[in-house]
Amino acid sequence: MGPSGCGKTTLLRVILGLQRPDSGAIGNRFVRPAAVFQEPRLLPWRRAWENVNLVLSDGPDTEGEARAWLDRLEVGEAAELYPAELSGGMQQRVSLARALAAAPDLLVLDEPFKGLDEALCERVITTVSRALPEAAILLATHSEAEAAALGCRILRYDKGRFDV
After folding, report:
1. Which of 15, 19, 51, 115 is the most buried (most CB within 10 A)?
2. pTM of the full predicted structure?
3. Distance between CA 162 and CA 2 in Å, rounded?
């Protein structure tokens, strides 16, 4: 947690290997990371279920599993829709479904519950926490309630430093 603009997203990008650190190095023991960014990052030419299926087989044999993940995130009714046809909250849940379907050992979440009403947010957080009981979760958020609901230890981050 930290103020807007303090570098939370940049830190997550460095941890994921998407950006090089200015100095030092990042090492981790995780082999199957998955991420959900502030923006859903869906492929616009693929339907919702196809976006989730990308991390499965990307073939017809796992379509049912992809659709099941969408159902778990309460967006199954939109499985045939393209991202442009979905609301922002629905796009975010498709992105979450894709990350969970990947069965990661590290789930990196960058304000993933933005745009969800409180009741839906609580249900989605419950789904996320139950879906990957063995995975580590690294969450960037402004909400202590979201962090607590996922069982996260809160580290305060500002100006490149942690205040534990």
Report:
1. 51
2. 0.91
3. 9
Quote the tokens at residue 158: 């500002």
In degrees and rounded to multiples of 5, residue 157 shows phi and psi of -125, 130
- Report CA dihedral (133, 136, 141, 146) to the nearest 10 degrees: 20
Torsion angle of alpha carbons 91, 148, 10, 48, nearest 10°? -10
| Coil, helix or strand at residue 144 | helix
Write out the DSSP string of 4-35.
Answer: TTSSHHHHHHHHTTSS--SSS------SSEEE
The CB density around residue 119, as the number of other CB atoms within 10 Å, is 8
User: Taking the CA atoms of the chain, what radius of gyration do you get in angstroms?
Assistant: 16
Report the candidate in 66, 68, 20 with the shortest Cα–Cα distance to residue 47: 66
Could you read off the pLDDT of 94-143 as tens digits, one per residue? 999 999 999 999 999 999 998 889 999 999 999 999 998 899 999 998 88
Owner of token pair 């979905």? 86
